[in-house]
Amino acid sequence: MGVYEEILKGSRQHPVKRETICFALNKSDRQVRKQIEELRAEGNRICYSPTKSGYYIASSEEEYLEFRTRYISYALRQLYIVSKMDREKYMDYESLHDQICMTFEEEKK
């Protein structure tokens, strides 16, 4: 059994905590977070509930879109902070996209 199967045990109302997954699979927190990232990159709709501190698979488009809004908001906030740190007045989204994709592909190796 793997991370995906452990997350399947949860729901939006009762999400599975990452610590529970780590214990069940005898994996480190970092290993589980990395695996969740990889599963998401494969298209799996693994959602996270910040109020209940756990993961679940979206069982409807509504559940996914709710998670997606929070996830994108977080990502955009990070990009905004990086742009401020870089002291850029604007972002070249095409080059940023290429940079992100290249970084992600390198991490997968």
Overview of this structure, please?
The chain has 109 residues and is mainly alpha-helical. It has one domain: Winged helix-like DNA-binding domain superfamily/Winged helix DNA-binding domain (Arc Repressor Mutant, subunit A). The protein is 62% helix and 7% strand. It has helices at 3-8, 18-25, 29-41, 61-85, 93-108, and strands at residues 46-49, 54-57. Strands 1-2 form a two-stranded antiparallel sheet. A hairpin with a 4-residue loop joins strand 1 and strand 2. Helix 2 crosses helix 3 (29-41). The longest helix is centred in the C-terminal third of the chain and has 25 residues, at 61-85. The relative contact order is 0.12.
Give the tags.
109 residues, mainly alpha, Arc Repressor Mutant, subunit A, two-stranded antiparallel sheet, 7% strand
Number of helices: 5
The CATH topology is what? Arc Repressor Mutant, subunit A
How far apart, in Å, are the first and last alpha carbons? 24 Å
SSE sequence, one letter per element: HHHEEHH
Query: Biggest sheet: strands side by side, in what order?
Result: 1-2
Itemize the secondary structure elements and their pairings.
Layout: H1 3-8, H2 18-25, H3 29-41, E1 46-49, E2 54-57, H4 61-85, H5 93-108
Antiparallel strand pairs: 1-2
Helix pairs in contact: 2-3
